[in-house]
Amino acid sequence: MGKVLITGMSGTGKTTVLEQLRLRGYETVDTDVDGWCVWGTLPGDTDAGWLWHEDRMRELLARPRRVPLFVGGCVANQGKFYSQFDHIVLLSAPWKVMCERLGRRTGNPYGKSDAEQTEILRHLREVEPLLRAGADLELDSSIYTAGELADILDHLGTSGGET
């Protein structure tokens, strides 16, 4: 079964679409919760940020499975794992849409303060182009419903769907 990484900036819909996929019976991992990340610095870098626990992620991706795995997150060391995923999908959205979503969400407080929004805007300029370069597919989450996004991802995970 397929392994799909769903990445993107805060407010693009990663958690929402993961929940849709979980309700369909698929294995989902939101790396923003449950101890999947540690704060740290990549070798040769000076900026600290969230990193996946590499041993834990390697074990997750190596496990045999009967249903597709969908992993959601955006961390500095995710590129180390790209070769272990069948698909890398970037969720994007216009800045205004992201801000509206961040203001409405209740399950995660990140992105509500001015300082956090400034940080997200910086990541949008500096990090999103890197994510785009590594992605097989980019989906603008402002033009699809969560269910439609889940349908597209479902196809990728279950049929090895070509991008």
Automatic annotation (TrEMBL):
Q: Which UniProt keywords apply?
A: Kinase, Transferase
The domain of life is Bacteria
Concerning Pfam families, the annotation shows: AAA_18 (PF13238)
Q: Name one GO molecular function term.
A: kinase activity
Can you say what this protein is called? Answer: Shikimate kinase
Organism of origin is Deinococcus metallilatus
